[in-house]
Specification:
alpha+beta; L-amino peptidase D-ALA esterase/amidase; about 30% helix; homodimer; about 400 residues; ArgJ-like_dom_sf (chains A, B); EC 2.3.1.35 (chains A, B)
Chain lengths: ~400, ~400
């Protein structure tokens, strides 16, 4: 059961001027399943992306990177589920290109104006014929109001579609932001990938889009972890359709740039956190906040050590305030000159460890009370500086093992 | 159920001249349990040790490091289970010292000739009175033939005692090697630590002992992983009693040094692998062998990425030849210039992936056959050099979650 996460209400997702979305059933892997989604962008959109750091990256990721780096004027995005087109070599690249060519031909575009995304089983050939055959239906279906449909269309083994939407003021003008994401742990049996698509009608210079996507990912999708596995297909795309009346954002550190980024970040975080809330077997949503570090990077390092520790994660599952496991994870996070006698640890408002030892006033029942909650904040103070960082994760339950140990069906 | 691991037969463990071992029931945490073990060494033993890299290291670890670094003439080792004396600050150091002082007084030694070891619950005060009260019985019990008893005496939640023994020729003289270990995953509920004690009667110069312990750990205890968690108390001690008639080993790269190291390594590996075989919830013993790297370090990095991946580990539990998960782990291991088109993957003798893609001649039933075995070798060739390294691990099962999610009892 996802942790405090329900399907989005379609009417709560604001359409973004300049974006139409269509979904179809192409039978990529299974019949009668929405498995093909297209985003059609009006001319003039600015687009940025961030992709998996996995060296074994999928064919569509390679093509997206190449096209965005070359400054392609993106007009369409095509997403299939059921097949990740990863570990498929040259043939996989050719098939991803074929998909783009087919969509481009039907829309009167150049192939490099189409970005492809795939998610599903690894190391099997992409059934490009079935995908191409499904494109006309997806194009016909395209509507600005279809965000909730798209959130469903990109699901693989997610149990809940994930979408979020907001309005914000940028330079005195109201802009709209809507996005969707998918992912539920890194991989259910053979099903990979976290995908995120975020669009705004704000005017944003193409020149800042790559950096914008990077900074947004750093504060959202790059701060969530289920099991520490990094998929071959992870992608996050940010679109600014330039339809709103704001003065174009040309620098992220301008007042307008900051206002826009903050608003986008709010939605990106909801989308990223939704993935954790729907994490494989998750029963708890955990915020790991590390402060008092010399650098944000070392805080992150400690936060990930805690968030990845199977022992910490099983303790959360068991609602066991097992302080030793958290402190041990802090200790092995890799900060060579860490002084254990300066570490403080809190579970929500409960101060459990002080100067690296048990807080004399800590009572087990207080820790127990917090550990029983569905949402918990672990706060660690390293006592060596003023930097901080935060990571979101979930617990490790029996269901995680069941889900991932099921034989591929 | 441990994987191909049974309790040692006491008579198969050769006594090591110059070492007597005694075990007692001190009631550290629970009554009627062998929880206190002493090793008594004749005068003139050479001793080296390697300890946890966890910055949150336990009080006894700090004291052992200090004494070995100061060149103490070690004559006794005291090990308690039931309490790790970790996260206990200055008070914990004082209690560990008290234990050593009490044992030293009873044996007519200086306190710094005693090395203390503790394993068990974290962040609770060491019950030093009960330990001290148990020492006379442990001393009275001391016999050269008590290795199997000691293997039991240092167990916490291990399901099987772990010991190994061998004879070898060093410089034309037969020497004896016997050792014990404990650990079963990093931590069962609150129970931490891997401990290893290895003794030989060979003559070895004290000057090479630290390096010897380091090199042995690098080839054994530092190459096993259950869940990637590093305990606060991990310790590995090597003792050479200097009772044998061999010419003293004064350099590890001499012929005698190499012969001795190889023999010690064989026993150390058995002890380290026994910990994986008895890993929490383990149903499979996995050897991850990475070759074709530029350096051994990068091979190790890839091997650990595979060995720590919850997705890979659950696939082993399910006997699912899920190649994508292994290749994905290779891809995110952190080698920035890795070329995915050069990766080959084998499961035992089955060549599953070639040049980063599925081997055309690979049949799922062959992978399936290997995955069903209790012992499996995963071999990855990175195709970029001639270095290699190996790591041993186990699968991730329902029982791992059950064991670690049980509330501390």
């Amino acid at each position: 059961m996802p942790v405090n996460l329900t399907a989005p209400v379609a009417s709560s997702l604001h359409p973004v001027a300049g974006v139409r979305i269509g979904v179809a059933e192409a039978g990529v892997r299974k019949a009668n399943r929405k498995d093909l989604t297209v985003f059609l962008l009006d001319e003039g959109a600015s687009v940025g992306g961030v992709f998996t750091s996995n060296r074994f990256c999928a064919a569509p990721v390679q093509i997206c990177r190449e096209r965005l780096d070359a400054g392609a004027a993106v007009r369409a995005i095509v997403v299939n589920t059921g097949n990740a087109n990863a570990g498929t070599g040259e043939d996989g690249l050719a098939r991803a290109r074929q998909t783009c060519e087919a969509l481009a031909a039907q829309l009167g575009l150049q192939p490099d104006q189409v970005l492809p995304f795939s998610t599903g089983v690894i190391m099997e050939p992409l059934p490009v014929d079935r995908i191409v055959a499904g494109l006309p239906a997806a194009i016909t279906d395209a509507q600005p109001a279809h965000w909730a449909r798209a959130a469903e269309g990109i699901m693989t083994t997610d149990t809940v579609p994930k979408a979020a939407s907001a309005k914000a003021m940028v330079g005195g003008v109201e802009v709209t932001i809507t996005g969707i994401s998918k992912g539920a742990g890194m991989i259910r049996p053979n099903m990979a990938t976290m995908l995120g698509f975020l669009a705004t009608d704000a005017k944003v210079d193409q020149a800042v889009m790559k950096q914008l996507a990077f900074e947004l990912a750093e504060g959202s999708f790059n701060r969530v972890t289920i099991d520490g596995d990094t998929s071959t297909n992870d992608s996050f795309i940010v679109i600014a359709t330039n339809k709103a009346a704001n003065a174009p954002v040309t620098a992220l550190d301008s007042a307008d740039g900051q206002a826009l980024k903050e608003a986008l970040m709010g939605v990106a975080r909801q989308l990223a956190q939704a993935i954790v809330r729907d994490g494989e077997g998750a029963t708890k949503f955990i915020t790991v906040q590390v402060e008092g570090g010399k650098t944000a990077a070392e805080c992150r390092q400690v936060a990930y050590a805690i968030a990845h520790s199977p022992l910490v994660k099983t303790a959360f599952f068991a609602s066991d305030p097992n302080l030793g496991r958290i402190l041990a994870a802090v200790g092995y996070a890799g900060i060579d000159d860490l002084d254990q006698t300066r570490i403080d640890l809190y579970l929500d408002d409960v101060h459990v460890a002080v100067n690296g030892g048990r807080n004399p006033s800590y009572r087990e029942e207080d820790g127990q009370r917090v550990m029983k909650q569905a949402e918990i904040t672990v706060r660690v103070n390293l006592g060596r500086g003023s930097a901080s960082d935060t990571v979101w994760t979930c617990d490790l339950s029996h269901d995680y093992v069941s889900i991932n140990a099921d034989y591929r069906s």
